[in-house]
Amino acid sequence: MQVPSPSVRDLARRLLDREAAGPSPAGGHESERVCEKLRVLLTRFAGAEGFLALMRRSLALAREEVPALQKLILKPDGCFVGFEEALDGDGNEAGTALTAHFLWLLFTFVGEPIGLRLIREEWPDVTIDD
Asked: What angle do CA 106, 64, 115 make, to 5 degrees?
């Protein structure tokens, strides 16, 4: 199994840290907020099916690393059910794995420059190592 590079994992951690540090009017775990923002970004760029395809594969890959993610269910509308249960105890590891796999697949399929441009749209203050 190929895995995201250390730089992609680091970017995933920075996005999660940014969400954890910021206000959360909608509530939820920072991993859930990052996934929701990625859903909106990618749906605008590649449509709902494009997002769902990448997130389904990301979740499958992340489950191999963090078995607790078996409890996480991706609904057909792109939202998740069971984030709190799935992340209980392994929140940082699970969130990082899911986000890193998503970013890695995004960069693989649309290219890193376009992927980074999308990330910058939502998180302009997060340092991104090009």
From this structure: 10
